[in-house]
Design goal:
By secondary structure, the protein is an alpha+beta fold. The longest helix is centred in the first third of the chain and has 26 residues, at 2-27. InterPro entries: D12N6_MeTrfase_N, DNA_Adenine_Mtase, DNA_methylase_A-5, DNA_methylase_N6_adenine_CS, SAM-dependent_MTases_sf. Pfam families: HsdM_N (PF12161), N6_Mtase (PF02384).
């Protein structure tokens, strides 16, 4: 048995090498190396399909003629039955008959007719490959005919039937579906390694996939029963992860004496890699499974999920990380209309708990999509293995999408383990990557726990770098990780166990009272003239026109507008920003700001603010008020006396102009509420204080000072909770501080560096002294040589 397997591998390598050499021999002067696969991969698919359909070709043509004669509209099912496959070709041509065609445009027309004869599923693959776009190039270079000849070379056999000599002896063995799939995957691997820049986007190294498959299946190997299992990858690329997962599950089932039916489901946005994935399944004889692979530029897993109602037993993926999903976000409704129930859930008392990351990186959105497809009512539940980079562990503040996703996962106790992989193990990135393993049927010893494994130093170097990939996981490395994962819970230098709450924290907002002094001095009042914003521009306009602005604004408006538009008459849209930070108009002022500057109502409002402030100055004087509360009360009394009703925004503008912060001033009172006679009061840390005035008691709340606002992270496992932390860490330094309870949020982050950091040991004083003495010896006499010839 072992010998036969070795022969099969030798045959597969021979065929792969042969096809690889076709690319070098025929396409070298026609395409750059990175584009060889645009021709070779679809040609490989065509040759295999052509060979598979050879026996039933005439039967299919007869069935086609019969269906056409009887005006049967829906022919696909009947033609598949005639072919005995999930695909067929109804053209009169085969590759063998095309080989006999003349070169040039006639061959081009016949070849296109041959392609047009394939079934719709094969047509889709060819379309996604953009193979028809290559035909004219191949014809012009006079290589199309040679490619057909090369793929029909009698030295290789891509047929499921053996090639026999005249005596009936097997000359070339048959290539079964699995063998053909292996050949195709080998070609994909070589092309991906050749195109190192793109490989990491679509191709996950097989050593990593093997590890992920084992982590996903081995913990439940003895629970797998005979039956049907569904596997899913929402970013399936060329399908390599699904293939390895399927093989691993099938092997485990056979080892345990079980018969399983495995169905693969995948979605991929890149048309070419989708075509490769679907073609790979067709070549393996898994035509029905190929129907469950969907893809194309309009088939994003995030904005166009094709399996909304499906639940899966096992899910595996390497989603894009560090890649924007802004287009998907806008397709899903954007800020105002986003309502996808996968990403807005009820959790932690919040009926609209948002699992929406920043649009600059959507990797965790793919994980949420998988978690929403878990089986919740089966004994085995669902298991997930997925690759993320380091930002998925800690990016996002408490209450933001990334942190919310980690919170949702950990508080539902779905995360089993995270394994840190070696650096430079992927093709196009050298950054840190991690395998997350999740399940909704955790074994008893994992409940409420998370295992972290640092496998970053377990690898073997490659003899030759493949892009940025300079190492791989050996079988021994994979086994070492699996042994730690499956072993009893115990901490080692490379493995640590945590409670799920160890990663959680409260983010509290620490407030301190605003303390102001006030003074109605002339310069402060005059600044109100430009209170509506764009102070610098308003000051220039005022300096030029003065009081004429109020008397003749309609007349002056065209002249001001022309000045604001600048000499070029073009707008500088990039300058549109903070309206309060205006600059003199050297370039055109953006329309939004210009519109406000040309609104006479804003100038009139600011003039009114000056008049009201001067009115208050007449009664209150221009002395300093050490207590802003007193100033505010007297100011409002003056306004009431003169029948002036000010809006809150107008009072705020005046107070802002004539007041300044001073830590010696009393706190500014925001709210003062009288307590009933027997109403109890419990002092706390929430910024509500008791004030006693004679027999009356008042609850007092202060205005917070935004400049002094701070935040603290309090571990969820802090003894005594937030209050104990606050009394110990904050009040000794800021006795007037309080906690803004309504702003408190829960966050989660997982810091691998903190848990596995190994500080470099400090050198001893003796070692440092020895180095200094050595340097002194090396430089002894050097100074004398440099300045020796210079006279004193």
């Amino acid at each position: 048995m072992q010998k036969k397997q070795q022969q099969d591998q030798s045959q597969i390598k021979w065929i792969s090498d042969f096809i690889w050499n076709i690319a070098d021999n025929r396409l070298r002067d026609v395409y750059v190396r990175g584009k060889y696969r645009d021709v070779i991969l679809p040609f490989t698919v065509l040759r295999r399909l052509d060979a598979v359909l050879e026996e039933t070709k005439q039967k299919v043509l007869e069935r086609k003629r019969f269906l056409d004669k009887n005006n049967v509209a829906e022919q696909d099912g009947a033609l598949r039955m005639a072919a005995g496959q999930a695909f067929y070709n109804v053209s009169e041509f085969t590759l063998a008959t095309l080989k006999a065609s003349s070169q040039g445009q006639r061959l081009r027309e016949d070849f296109i007719a041959y392609l047009d004869g394939f079934s719709p599923n094969v047509q889709e693959i060819l379309t996604k490959f953009k193979f028809r776009d290559q035909i004219q190039t191949l014809v012009d270079a006079h290589v199309l005919g040679y490619l057909i000849e090369d793929f029909l070379d009698p030295e290789i056999n891509l047929s499921p039937l053996p090639v026999k000599d005249a005596d009936g002896r097997i000359k070339l063995p048959a290539l079964d579906n699995h063998g053909m799939g292996t050949v195709f995957e080998e070609l994909i691997r070589r092309f991906n390694e050749e195109n190192n820049e793109e490989a990491g986007e679509h191709f996950t190294p097989r050593d990593v996939v093997k590890l992920m498959a084992k982590l996903m299946f081995l913990p439940v190997a003895d629970q797998i029963q005979s039956g049907t299992y569904l596997l899913y990858d929402g970013a399936c690329g060329t399908g390599g992860m699904l293939t390895v997962a399927e093989e691993t599950l099938r092997e485990l089932a056979e080892e345990h004496g079980k018969e399983v039916s495995i169905h693969l489901f995948g979605q991929e946005i890149n048309p070419e890699t989708y075509a490769i994935c679907k073609a790979d399944l067709l070549l393996k004889g898994e035509g029905d499974e190929a129907e469950h692979i969907v893809g194309g530029a309009d088939k994003s897993t995030l904005s166009a999920d094709q399996f909304r109602s499906r639940e899966f037993d096992f899910m595996i993926s390497n989603p894009p990380y560090g890649k924007s999903w802004k287009t998907d976000f806008e397709r899903m409704g954007g800020k105002q209309g986003f309502n996808d129930p996968r990403f807005i859930v009820s959790h932690g008392g919040d009926p609209e708990f948002k699992l929406i990351t920043r649009t600059s990186d959507g990797q965790l959105m793919f994980l949420v999509n998988k978690l929403q497809k878990m089986k919740r009512h089966s004994p085995l539940g669902s298991r997930i293995a997925i690759v993320h980079n380091g930002s998925a562990l800690f990016t996002g503040d408490a209450g933001q999408g990334e942190s919310n996703i980690r919170r949702w996962i950990l508080e539902n106790d779905w995360l089993e383990a995270i394994i840190a992989l070696p650096l430079n193990i992927f093709y196009n990135t050298g950054i840190a990557t991690y395998v997350w393993v999740l399940a909704n049927r955790k074994p008893e010893h994992r409940k409420g726990k998370v295992q972290l494994i640092d496998a970053s130093q377990w690898f073997q170097p490659l003899r030759r770098n493949l892009g940025k990939k300079n190492c791989e996981l050996s079988e021994a490395d994979i086994q070492r990780i699996v042994d730690l994962y499956l072993g009893p819970p115990q901490d080692t230098p490379q493995c640590k166990w945590f409670d799920t709450t160890d990663f959680g924290y409260w983010k509290i907002t620490v407030e301190r009272p605003l303390r102001l002094k006030s003074q109605l001095k002339r310069s402060a009042i005059e600044s109100l003239r430009f209170a509506s914003g764009d102070e610098a521009l308003r000051a220039e306009i005022w300096a030029k026109y003065g009081d004429r602005l109020y008397a003749e604004f309609p007349k002056l408006k065209p002249e001001i507008e022309a000045w604001l538009k600048g000499d070029t008459g073009e707008e500088n849209d990039d300058a549109e920003g903070d309206e309060d930070e205006g600059t003199p108009a050297k370039k055109a002022v953006p329309e939004k700001r210009r519109k406000k500057l040309l609104d006479f109502a804003t100038w009139q409002r600011d003039k009114t603010l000056i008049e009201l402030a001067l009115l208050a100055q007449q009664e209150l004087g221009d002395g300093v008020f050490d207590d802003h509360n007193e100033f505010r009360a007297r100011f409002e009394a003056v306004m009431a006396k003169h029948g002036k009703k000010l809006a809150a925004a107008e009072k705020k503008a005046i107070f802002k102009a004539v007041s300044w912060r001073d830590e010696t001033a009393p706190p500014v009172i925001a709210k003062r509420t009288k307590l009933k006679k027997d109403e109890p009061f419990e002092p706390g840390l929430d910024g509500v204080y008791l004030e006693v005035a004679g027999k009356d008691r008042f609850l007092v709340e202060y205005e917070p000072d935004t400049d002094l606002r701070d935040t603290e992270q309090v571990p969820l496992k802090e003894p005594g909770g937030i209050d104990a932390f606050f009394r110990r860490e904050v009040l000794p330094h800021a006795p007037d501080a309080w906690v803004a309870r309504e702003a408190t949020k829960i966050g989660y982050e997982i810091s691998f560096a903190r848990y596995f950091y190994k500080p470099a040991p400090l050198r001893s004083l003796e070692e440092i002294r020895a180095d200094i003495l050595k340097l002194e010896q090396q430089t002894e006499g050097l100074l004398q040589k440099i300045i020796g010839g210079v006279p004193a």
